[in-house]
Design goal:
Elements lengths: L3 E7 L7 H5 L5 E6 L2 E6 L2 E6 L6 H11 L3 E6 L10 H21 L4 E5 L6 H14 L4 E5 L1 E2 L2 E2 L6 H9 L3 E5 L14 H20 L2 H4 L4 E4 L6 H14 L1 H4 L15 E3 L5 H11 L4 E2 L15 H4 L5 H17 L3
Parallel strand pairs: 1-5, 5-6, 6-7, 7-10, 10-11, 11-12, 12-13
Antiparallel strand pairs: 2-3, 3-4, 8-9
Length: about 325
Amino acid sequence: MTRIDIHTHIMPDKMPNWTEKFGYGGFIHLEHRNCKACMMKGDKVFRVVDSNTFDAGIRIEECRAANVHQQVLSTIPVLFNYWAKPADALDTSRFFNDHIAQTVSNHPQSFIGLGTVPLQDVDLSIKEMERCLHELKMPGLEIGTNVNGKNLGEPEFMPFFEAAEKNNCALFVHPWEMMGEKDMEKYWLPWLVGMPAETCRAICSLIFSGVFEKFPKLRIAFAHGGGSFPYTLGRIEHGFNVRPDLVQIDNTVNPRDYLGRFWVDSLVHDAPAFRFMMNMTGEDKICLGSDYPFPLGEHIPGQLIESMELPLATREKLLYKNALDWLNGKN
């Protein structure tokens, strides 16, 4: 059966040393050292990655072995560079977007590309969004769950979401710069606990700020099964009901009513959790997502879905049809 994996990350095998170029900051670049590929932050090793992080040929081989027909490529969130000067972040965004677009052009049957934009400057982001969609022929963008600590529902981002709706731009929201990260560095807790909470933060911010009401045709997918949102919705709804003075200040629509208004990926690693998520969101709003090529992802994309003895029509939706609806706007 066809499989489209909406949650995969890629980076170029060569990129400028932007820290030297711009003269400040901790921009990431890649260095190949002693048969290892090292993501460098300034002059320090940030992370060692395997060649499937940047080698399209190896990715295609591994996709064939896992029976994945297409990957949706997006940049690694640490490369968003929202903290940088806007013009410099635009420079890096354009570099990554051109690389992804070229990778898709070289292998159109294997890859679909999403762009990245410098969300610290909404005007520049809209211009780069339009370039990604119209010049690079991408169906959408990947964005972070916050922008330098600001929630996505802040008024300054409304023109961005308005432009995304107007331009029929699919959005993939991925956690990054997790709240409380510096307070829980031990045990990999930012990735195990912070990421699900960060995604829930983004969903709630978009709901309570009224983004889904203002822009009802937006197509937004959230990573990691929507994070903790499906499992804490009861608490969120209860707070909405008992403290309207705090929660309903910008939107009086019950948060439960937004189930089925956005997509999530399938990356929850657990069959009971997946069934609960499917009961909450509906089988039409879950897309296969693996977080390839990183270790916290699903190593055989779609294995959990295939293990659950779901009806054929449901598996078709989860493995590829829902992804096409999100990407192409057939909702």
